[in-house]
Design brief:
Elements: E1 17-18, H1 30-41, E2 50-51, E3 65-66, E4 71-72, E5 75-76, H2 77-85, E6 92-93, H3 95-100, H4 105-117, E7 121-125, E8 141-144, H5 146-152, E9 155-156, H6 162-181, E10 188-195, E11 210-218, H7 223-239, H8 252-262, E12 268-272, E13 281-284, E14 308-310, E15 317-322, E16 336-337, H9 339-344, H10 351-356, H11 359-371, E17 389-394, E18 408-411, H12 416-419, E19 422-423, H13 430-452, H14 472-484, H15 489-498, H16 507-519, E20 523-525, E21 538-540, H17 543-555, E22 561-562, E23 567-568, H18 576-601
Parallel strand pairs: 3-9, 11-12
Antiparallel strand pairs: 1-2, 4-5, 6-8, 7-8, 10-11, 10-13, 14-15, 15-16, 17-18, 17-19, 20-21, 22-23
């Protein structure tokens, strides 16, 4: 299947983006300005010159962004967009608003009328068929207009303050200076950057976008030599593993320069500088960095070196696909893996691997190894080290009893069991099995690099987590968890159904938002009893428990690791066991307290299912 951003996708024509409003248009209310912009996006002439995204392709062609908190038709834009998104091919009715916006039927009809007067809906269509006053259904329908369809598909975004917008523009200027300091890296240099729209005005109001007009110049004066240089750069990047990336309509170097300026930001928008754009200049390069180039021979893409003749891991003859670490060249890589080892090493992109993480392939290999090992001595899979037949359990035996007979008996080294999703005891917990598999895969990669004489990859820098961005829904979830002690996704769905709230919110909607709170350590999972149906039950995570958890796992993380030469499970440092016991006792006490609060707040709601 071809991805929309892959190299095989044909380039689309540049979509026009209406230029920001002039200073004279800023005097009206925010609602009037938004309605005019919606009409312009729907095809109404604006009288303002069009702007074209830099390079012709970007992340904002056809996208309309609104501030959902702006007043509109007596409510806010969020409610208006909710109404328009609910419209089906026949339209939207009164009953679609009574539950989602918590309105009476009369208030819903009045609100639909205001949206009609604003030009977002047309209608009503049909007649009110209620023959008697006691009939409760109004069957009239209102259909979205072209302007309303634009708002229905609009993206919501919180505006950036003026100071934040200025800092984003300053970051683009700094990036331009770095690009011009070494223009051969991307084969383009920045001549000028101008501010557009609200950023060019002296007002201090917030901005949804930071619009900049950028002029880029090629490094080489000859267009043919410039194109050949970009092709060489692009083929080298493809050889390093860059696949299916967005290209613009000018060239690979032009696209790389855009990424260096603003990355994939949706707030900063880069436009092609037209002759009639005479806004505030933020940056201008005084030098002419374009060079003359000597003519070179026609460029031909390097030939594919083809697969290796033996697999580097299982050492079996046959075609082996070359693999390399991220950023390394594939064409010169001395490491090749067969189709089975590609899956075991996490380098395969097949649908089977994506479906079950390679477990199906691992089970098939294990069944083969028990009958016909790939090596007569040593490990039955890789043959590297001496190994004796031992009992191994698969992931399916993770909940088996201790006296259950072994799943398989096979000769394996210390690395291959984790690759095959096997473990040394049926009682190993899931977290231990996960860490064992990760340690074995790290050992496989390190062993392959060492045998091929390749250097170790550079250590990756882990960025600190971003602060949690909590919406009104997140705040309401936290409030309910504090009140009830323990909550599950089933509880939230049940409460929403009882209150007649949005019926389109499935349990996955709550699961996603609870997952966001878990990721930012605002709530904690409540342990499920072994004899009950497992659920995602959460409670509030207090500051003292959060700090103690961070202290415990900053000192030591239990489980297997790859220490550079073997898979081992290091002993915890002195005092860590007592600290971990303290954390376990604290968690158990907080779970009991949360259950006690729930019993008082929700005496009729069962938490678990038998």
């Amino acid at each position: 299947m071809t991805d929309r951003n892959s190299d095989l996708s044909p380039p689309r024509p540049a979509a026009r983006v209406i230029s920001p409003r002039a200073a004279g248009d800023q005097t009206d209310s925010a609602e009037d300005r938004l309605l005019r912009d919606l009409q312009t996006a729907a095809g109404r002439p604006s009288g303002r010159p069009p702007l074209f995204p830099l390079g012709g392709l970007g992340t904002y062609e056809g996208e309309f962004v609104v501030d959902l908190a702006v007043p509109m038709c007596g409510r806010d834009v969020r409610d208006a967009r909710t109404v328009l998104k609910r419209a089906d091919p026949w339209g939207v009715g009164v009953h679609d608003l009574t539950s989602s916006l918590n309105l009476t039927e009369g208030d819903a009809a009045d609100y639909l009328g205001r949206l009609v007067r604003a030009g977002l809906l047309s209608g009503p269509h049909g007649e009110d068929e209620r023959a008697q006053e006691w009939e409760h259904h109004d069957y009239r329908l209102w259909k979205p207009t072209p302007t309303g369809k634009v708002l229905a598909h609009a993206s919501g975004r919180k505006p950036s303050s003026r100071g934040r917008a200025e800092s984003l523009a300053a970051a683009v200027v700094t990036a331009a200076e770095q690009i011009n300091a070494s223009p051969d890296d991307a084969l383009y240099w920045v001549e000028e950057i101008r501010a557009l729209g609200g950023l060019a005005e002296p007002a201090d109001g917030p901005l949804l976008h930071v619009d900049l007009a950028v002029t880029l110049r090629p490094r080489l004066a000859d267009p043919l030599e410039q194109a050949k240089a970009e092709r060489r750069m692009q083929d080298a990047a493809r050889d390093r593993g860059e696949r299916g990336l967005v290209r613009d309509m000018i060239g690979y170097g032009h696209w790389q320069t855009r990424l260096k300026l603003a990355g994939h930001s949706k707030t900063v928008r880069l436009f092609k500088a037209e002759e009639d754009v005479r806004e505030r200049v933020l940056f201008r390069e005084p030098r002419d960095l374009t060079l003359d180039a000597e003519p070179t021979a026609p460029y031909a893409r390097p030939a594919d070196p083809g697969p290796l003749s033996h697999c580097s891991w299982c050492r079996q003859p046959g075609p082996a696909e070359r693999v390399a670490a991220p950023g390394r060249e594939y064409s010169t890589s001395p490491i090749g893996l067969c189709q089975d080892c590609l899956v075991l090493g996490g380098a395969a992109a097949s649908s089977a691997y994506d479906f079950d993480g390679g477990r199906g392939t691992a089970r098939r290999i294990v069944a083969t190894l028990t009958e016909q090992p790939r090596h007569a001595t040593g490990c039955a899979l890789c043959g590297r080290t001496a190994a004796a037949p031992l009992a191994w359990w698969s992931d399916r035996h993770g909940n088996a009893a201790a006296d259950e007979p072994a799943g398989v008996r096979v000769r394996l080294c210390q690395i291959c069991p984790g690759l095959l999703h096997l473990h040394d005891a049926p009682t190993r917990e899931r977290w231990w099995r996960s860490r064992f598999g990760a340690a074995c895969m790290a050992g496989m990669h390190a062993t392959l690099r060492r045998e091929a004489g390749l250097p170790e990859p550079e250590a990756r820098t882990v960025k600190p987590p971003r602060p949690a961005r909590l919406t009104q829904a997140h705040q309401e979830i936290l409030t309910e968890i504090r009140r009830s002690g323990v909550m599950t996704t089933v509880d939230f769905s049940r409460d929403a159904h009882r209150a007649g709230a949005d019926p389109h919110r499935r349990w996955s909607w709550w699961e996603t938002r609870i997952g966001h709170l878990l990721d930012h350590e605002l709530v904690a999972l409540v342990a499920n009893d072994r004899d009950t149906h497992p659920q995602t039950a959460v409670r509030i995570l207090a500051d003292d428990e959060r700090d103690l958890t961070r202290r415990v796992f900053a000192l030591h993380v239990p489980g297997p690791v790859w220490d550079g030469s073997r898979v081992t499970e290091p002993e915890p440092p002195t005092g860590w066991t007592d600290l971990y016991t303290q954390l376990t006792v604290l968690r158990r006490e907080r779970d009991k307290e949360a259950h006690r609060v729930r019993a008082l707040a929700r005496p009729t709601d069962l938490l678990t299912m038998p």
